[in-house]
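User: Sequence in, structure out. Go.
Assistant: Echoing your sequence, followed by the structure tokens.
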Amino acid sequence: MSVRELVVLGTASQVPTRHRNHNGYLLRWDGEGILFDPGEGTQRQMLRAGVAAHDLNRICVTHFHGDHSLGLAGVIQRINLDQVPHPVTAHFPRSGQRFFDRLRYSTAYRETVGVTEVPVDRDGPLATAASYTLEARRLSHPVESYGYRIVEPDGRRMLPDRLAAHGVKGPDVGRIQREGAVGDVRLDDVSEVRRGQRFAFVMDTRLCDGVHALADGADLLVIESTFLDEDERLAVDHGHLTAGQAARVARDAGVRHLVLTHFSQRYSQPEEFERQARAAGFEGELTVAHDLLRVPVPKRR
């Protein structure tokens, strides 16, 4: 049985708190695990969440500020210590290659697993797997930063009433799916498009075109909301979003489930993020993330 869910490993921004670890997010997508922005302490949070190094197939780093990348050293060394038997691919801004190299080889260890490096330097597709395409979009932050998007290809949904009306049954149902037609009956006559699921991951950024492109039509959007709306000037100055800004992005993009995260240590009442997001007009499912939370990707429409 396929599983598509987000495992939240950490939700703090620059400074961790007693209750919030630095960033870290694992997306389980069918048989693959995609780790986003492993901040300091990610390896321990993986243990607490029941995530093993063997679960990792990709690592996606948005940018090289410490709260989004200092956990790379431990995660990569754990991948090698556990001798993960499958390939692991790492994506990160090409301009940060020197930081990735320093983290990957920060201490001595026995390298047993080949981690393939595929840096990002432009918008567009990065990789295609069996059930998704991984895309990147440039964001607006003091250092180069990219957000990521998982897009499942559209499929077809067979419609029993139309199949019956056209007399298509038994083995002919599979045949029309494979070949596109049976006699004069076309696949379009007895089915409809089943839209693929979409996941978006947006970290440190001001509002920009990349934010909207990543969020567009997402079933699950994970987005930073470092500041509350009354501190919007701080957000702009430091290259971040507020709760209201993130919610308006989700509202305008038709997002089904919005996950707010990456909170400044200055705030101690998470319910205020939810209040401001609702006040901004977002009416879909809304989660203010906390460490070790699991969030399923919404079922297909």
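User: And one key feature?
Assistant: The longest helix spans residues 243-253.
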